[in-house]
Amino acid sequence: MVTYYLYQKKVYDKYSTSMRESLDLPNIPEYVSIKDAAKLLGVSDKRVYAYIEEGRLPAVRAAHVIMIPLEEVNRFKPKITGRPRKNTPMWRTSPDDNMLLTISIFVNLWADRQERFKQTLDEIKQSGEHIFPGTVARYILRSQTHPGRVEILLIWRSTAIPDEKAREQALDEVRQALADMVDWSSARYDTGEVLIHT
């Protein structure tokens, strides 16, 4: 009996997954699919299913299609993962033979492309592309002092930083990906070394 149940569940899971992937979902005003909700929240489809099962995200089912009110997705705040930090970390220095090196790129966005820029960053995050091999941290910051200006901050350990050719190739791929949103002629580059850090 248990074996038959597991077989049925496996067939259903496979069938329902293939249906979800192959269905051309209709556009229902004010509702989004699981996949669209995952993109909006910056999480996986599986995580959205978990939010629904936990009762944290309301959804409606129409046959085999699950739809979520767009308003609920926009209002949804995922819980912070991990334990909250109790102590502020102290300043540290890196050893001379393994110091932190940085590249900062300050560049202007085209005025009418800021929303498209944000969407492209979401796509980059979802795809896992443009990770700049060897980096220990990567940030893309929007300036509040100078609206329309962003900073790309890349941090490497000196023992793991790729050679200049590899860094330039990775940067060139990002330039191409953002070419129609970023005024690369305005770019200002700065390299540095971290003196103290947390």
What is the gist of this entry?
With 198 residues, the protein is α+β, with helices and mostly antiparallel strands. It is built from six helices and seven strands, in the order H-E-H-H-E-E-H-E-H-E-E-H-E.
Walk me through the structure:
This protein starts with a helix and ends in a 5-residue tail after the last strand. The longest helix has 21 residues, at 2-22. The chain is globular and about 60 Å long. It has 198 residues and is of the alpha+beta class. Strand 5 (135-142) and strand 6 form a beta hairpin. It has helices at residues 2-22, 34-41, 45-53, 70-75, 114-127, 164-177; strands spanning 31-33, 60-62, 65-69, 100-109, 135-142, 149-157, 182-193.
Report, as a whole number of angstroms, the end-to-end distance: 57 Å
Mean pLDDT: 85
Low-pLDDT ranges: 4-8, 18-23
Spatial sequence of strands, sheet with the most strands: 5-6-4-7
Shape: globular
Radius of gyration: 22 Å
* Beta content: 25-35%
Structural class: alpha+beta
Query: What's the SSE pattern?
Result: HEHHEEHEHEEHE
Q: How many individual helices? A: 6
Using DSSP, what is the number of strands?
7
Biggest sheet record = 4 strands, antiparallel
Which range best describes the helical content: under 10%, 10-25%, 25-40%, 40-55%, 55-70% or over 70%? 25-40%
Descriptive terms for the model:
198 residues; alpha+beta; four-stranded antiparallel β-sheet; three-stranded antiparallel β-sheet; 36% helix; globular
